[in-house]
Amino acid sequence: MALPADRRWHVPAVNPLAGFIGQDSTGTWTLTVTDNADQDVGQLQSWALEICIEQRDPIFADGFESGNTSSWTNTLP
After folding, report:
1. Ramachandran angles phi, psi of 39, nearest 5°
2. How far apart are the two ends of the chain, measured CA to CA in Å?
3. pLDDT tens digits, residue range 13-64?
4. Spatial distance between the Cα atoms of 18 and 63, rounded to a whole number of angstroms
5. What is the pLDDT of residue 36?
6. Is 70 exposed, middle or buried (0-12, 13-18, 19+ CB in 10 A)?
7. Phi-psi region of 36 (alpha: psi -120 to 50; beta: other; left: phi over 0)
8. Residue 26: its pLDDT value, please?
9. What is the DSSP string of 9-39?
């Protein structure tokens, strides 16, 4: 699809990333951009990847009622 050089163009995702919800984000991520236009007129001006994690309770949320602050435990689900 050819557009005039002064027009901005947003390309919707062909394969949305929703399939990655709940998956481990650890590892190497690679962004591949291809300029298939004649005369190399394409530009990537910005991009972003937002990785959100599940909210966990603060590590010191509870457990000091005994008055013994020399040790504590916290269990993650």
Report:
1. 60, 25
2. 49
3. 777 777 888 888 888 888 888 877 777 777 778 888 888 777 766 665 555 5
4. 37
5. 77
6. exposed
7. alpha
8. 85
9. -----SS-GGGGTTS---S---------SGG
